[in-house]
Amino acid sequence: MYGASDPAAADRTAFRRAEKQYKLYKPPNLKGRSRSRSRSKPDGVEGGCGDLSAVVDFHALLAADGELPAGIGRSNCAGFDHPVFCFLDRPGFYFIPGALSTEEQCYWIRESLKTFPQPPNRTNLTAIYGSISDLFVAAKNRKILVEVENSDVQEKEQNNGDGKTESKYSKFVEDSEIQKGEGCRSTRATTLMRKLRWSTLGLQFDWSKRNYDVSLPHKRIPDALANLAKNMAIPAMPFGEEFKPEAAIVNYYGPSDMLGGHVDDMEADWTKPIVSISLGCKCIFLLGGKTRDEVPTAMFLRSGDIVLMAGEARERFHGVPRIFTESDQQEISALVSQLSGEDDCFILDYIKNSRININIRQVY
Ligand code: OGA
Ligand code: MN
């Protein structure tokens, strides 16, 4: 996605060094048998294990309810009934720990997997397979996606409603329906689910051009998500102004996925916040400076946390170098209890190894 890393450039900046340090972090119980040796070393990157002592933990600050560490403040916002933290030297950045209840988290995880990847929303799979409907249901029912030759399906060519057509056509079939030796390309729906990396809601973002393509067909952001974003954006909005959600990017992270340092600069008005919702496994988020040379601040993001980036904070490099899928690190026990119904077992399996981020933007 962003900043495909050039290995030679990997260590050149403070941001890249921090990314590498956290990406390579291994929890103590996975350090292997050379424990006593690695303990005698300074706990640093060389050991391949790393150190999380500098990672800001807003949940711990909330629970301690004491004096805040230097540089961290509470933002008081009339009529907003969640605690909000900020960095005194980084205006425009707001952290709302535990903004969503477990029920709300489950709802948005289900939506992210079932509804958000549905056409006309585009996903990273669209360019490869054409538009895919009901991927989630197909994965649950262990179906297989087969690509059909275009000439065979001219009458089924997918019209996007704007005269543009997708050049590929794919359909789901049962395992038993696949004719051996037929030569068509086939992929398990469960594999595709794991390959899902992003989907876009509302105005469609074109990742190849890194721009919004308003000519692409799209639906409005669902009202419930727009209302949630409007409410959560309040601490970052000028008094009396309302946030207008026009687009959202949903990121799906598997165990070794990361999001390289970047600045989101394709929206017209940077005074408006990006509202960023975390779901599923815990991760480390880096908030850097206006160049990659500034040492970034690391913080934990957990399921249900919301981050706002507005104004000056929008010019800062940020990224996600590490997802914690290890069972004693992921911190999703409330979600796991909530997703205990038979119908939820596919979602539970997915989220135990994944993180989902929904970030909502006002484009104009
Ligand atoms: C993004 C982004 C952060 C996250 O999609 O632009 O910065 O928490 N996501 O995944
Ligand atoms: Mn971003």
UniProtKB/TrEMBL annotation:
GO biological process, alphabetically ordered: oxidative RNA demethylation
TM helices/strands, residue ranges: none
Cofactors named for this entry: Fe(2+)
Any coiled-coil regions, as ranges: none
InterPro entries per UniProt: Alkb, AlkB-like, AlkB-like_sf, Oxoglu/Fe-dep_dioxygenase_dom
Region (Disordered): 19-46
Record's keyword annotation contains Nucleotide-binding: no
Binding site for Fe cation: H262, D264, H318
Cofactor: binding comment: Binds 1 Fe(2+) ion per subunit.
Keyword annotations from UniProtKB, A to Z: Dioxygenase, Iron, Metal-binding, Oxidoreductase
Domain (Fe2OG dioxygenase): residue spans on this chain: 244-364
Molecular function, one GO term: ferrous iron binding
Name of protein: Fe2OG dioxygenase domain-containing protein
Native organism: Panicum virgatum
